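Shipment paperwork, digital attachment
Item: protein structure file
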Amino acid sequence: MIHQSAAQMADALAKGETTSVELTQAHLDRIAAVDGQVKAFLHVDTEGALAQAKDVDARRKSGEKLSPIAGVPLALKDVLAQKGVPTTAGSKILQGWRPPYDSTVVSKLKSAGVVIMGKTNMDEFAMGSSTENSGYGPTFNPWDLTRTPGGSSGGSAAAVSSFEAPLAIGSDTGGSIRQPAALTGIVGVRPTYGAVSRYGLIAYSSSLDQAGPFGRTVLDTALLHEVMAGHDVRDATSINAPVPAVVNAAKSGDVKGMKIGVIKQLQGEGYQKGVQTRFDDSLHVLASLGAEIVEVDCPSFEYALAAYYLIAPSECSSNLARFDAMRYGLRTGDVDGASAEAVMSSTRDAGFGREVKRRIILGTYALSSGYYDAYYGSAQKIRTLIIQDYAKAFTKADVLVSPTAPTTAYKIGEKVDDPMAMYLGDVATIPVNLAGICGMSLPAGLADEDNLPVGFQIMAPAMQDQRLYQAGAALEAALLSKWGAPILSKAPELKGAK
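Attachment content:
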């Protein structure tokens, strides 16, 4: 049961072949069996999940019309507020905090009858690419427990990859959905900026953050995408427009006549041989399906990584100023005679991890008097050039493609003391966030040298998310035919798995 796709589970629920309670319990049993090794979850809400499942079953039995994925279980990244459920953003500074409200995404999930099983591990405040920066320890890649699942949404990706959940939600600031999807052999989508409400999403970098879906198939992610997207008056950056027809696109999967642009700057030197090989193979597959492959030049992408690591830390230094030990969260150093400044300093020292402190310092410096124009201002100019490069490229192609990440999953601890090496892992995903467009990663096979998953990235213009699903579904179907089974069937089974 747990090895089915979310769409298959939804179909079984609709036909009465199983119940949401049975389905949810099966996944809770799986979590109990393997999460001690994977460590995808920070909090499992067993009682709450079964109560939600029981309610969905009762509504279905009464004849109520339900959403297509009502009753299907889901894992939620711990960056989204859920009323009464521990929400930490992977940080000690929020340990024990239980929000008094639901984020808009959680409200939409509950309305749709999606069963939220618990909160998943993440890099603290979404700052990282390996989930090693969590205040609660790392998550491990189900393909190889000595390796990282990527980040910052590594917990959500690992939960789906290890069959602990058929669906999950992550957030993507510089590639934090697409990169872990690539490293764990699943599908991950960053919707257009503003297409999914950020109300209740704990902020890292407000102009870049965007929640999005994980699934084991393109159709699964499309089903979740349609549930979680839509305009929200509580989010000033929310786009007031209809949700693109992503489910229909995922079901059609036709690329005949579609122009697919290969970005010159996002391949070749610096990319692992096995990654480049699988990417080239995927291009041949798309061409065999009737797509036209063209090369596009985006020269400003060379500066995207540098621009991102000025803009994101600058915004994080502003956003994280709210964690001052005065209103909520951790509070240390509160002794007789201690000043507010001393309590604040003690709390931040104890509550923030090394990477968060590094980015706050970098961002504060970039915004400081005398340096703003030289650093933050210049980075915003690069951002404009990247937007312009995308606009030109999309006049020549319907979608753009690249490898999702330059390498397959690397060893735990391999890059944690070398932040620059870690940052380079986002080189192919960051431009999407800077431009506010949409992107998808789907499995392209296994690298020859290490037998680990490789991700294929598809990018489309803002509010043209359906193009991702159309091209992704076509490639997925062709590769499934080639492999004979989903890529996850090639992963080694975890010890003690049920």
